[in-house]
Amino acid sequence: MKTQVCIIGGGPSGLLLSQLLHLKGIDTILLEKHSREYVLGRIRAGVLEHGFTELMREAECGDRMDAEGELHDGFEIVDNGIQHRVDLHKYTGASVMVYGQTEVTRDLYEARDRMQGKVIHNVEDVALHNLKAATPPYVTYRDSSGAQRIDCDFVIGADGFHGPSRKAIPRDVLREYEKVYPFGWLGVLSRTKPVNPELIYARNDRGFALCSMRSQVLSRYYIQVPLSDKAEDWSDAAFWAELKARLPQDVAARLETGPSIEKSIAPLRSFVAEPMRYGNLFLAGDAAHIVPPTGARGLNSAGSDIHYLYHGLIDHYLNGDDTGLNEYSAKALARVWKAQRFSWWMTSLLHSFPDTSEYDRHLQSTEMEYLFSSDAAQASLAENYVGLPF
Length: 390
Description:
By secondary structure, the chain is an alpha+beta fold. Helices cover 38% and strands 28% of the residues. The chain starts with a strand and ends with a helix.
């Protein structure tokens, strides 16, 4: 097989790039390790910044998002029972869209189907070749028919943290930076009405909690737990009791509980790989960077990668200009590190850290007090939360 751009990874990043390029007449083949059902079964975050929603509309995939998603002009932060609202629209003139990542992925798959896009599932042993050679690169893999090969101009690695793309960069070229946090998030998805019209981030001496949503009848809640905990250690009743203990009394009193549809623990970590380009390989999304979910930057950071790649590839194919591709790694990483800073700051502000000194606890409280005494501090928070410019 032959194509212009071979994309590895069938999550929202790879699908979005494939869809955008298709609309410009640029041919792609997308490879995915798992089945479509498996990909759509993954429960992920659902707060989309303005730039990501604009990309979805440009990809002709925004109709259901605009009809069913919810625009939020703000969110709440609770500091040991005291509630504060961050007014995003006041400080930025922008909003965020609450729309589940699973729904984003579903919309993108349906668009690829409509356009008869080439998406190949259940591939194994994916390997990348000739990335810096004088001859064009190619990708090999195995499927139910046996060994396969795709010749292409460029390879896009959107295959997540454990995929083969980043591993194809030589160790003496790749630099990796990582911070592992000493706790995780226990998340529960329930078919219940959200407890609040907007998200609630709660700082409590017992640990962090988040009240989120997927729709008006589907809620997503999280509590901070030790890394030693397992999801099966937590009954639904124990989860709801602990969540209520971390929320203001009036919020806890109106919390609607019910059986969990999904329950899992996600460890929190930060990760960046540099560079994000090696020859004709370009990394995007979790293949190159991961953030804690606290600031809702994960999918949105991947979206900014796709924005830069999309425009760089358009300029290459339609205008004969490689400036965007040559600048991709530097431009993408500049925004990635800003997202890392914001996610680290939100995580540090809102969580209880084991073995924290009294000095650090006082600093954490002072940071919170300063945030809500300063319009400039809230404006900075709002600017980062709705998404920095591409």
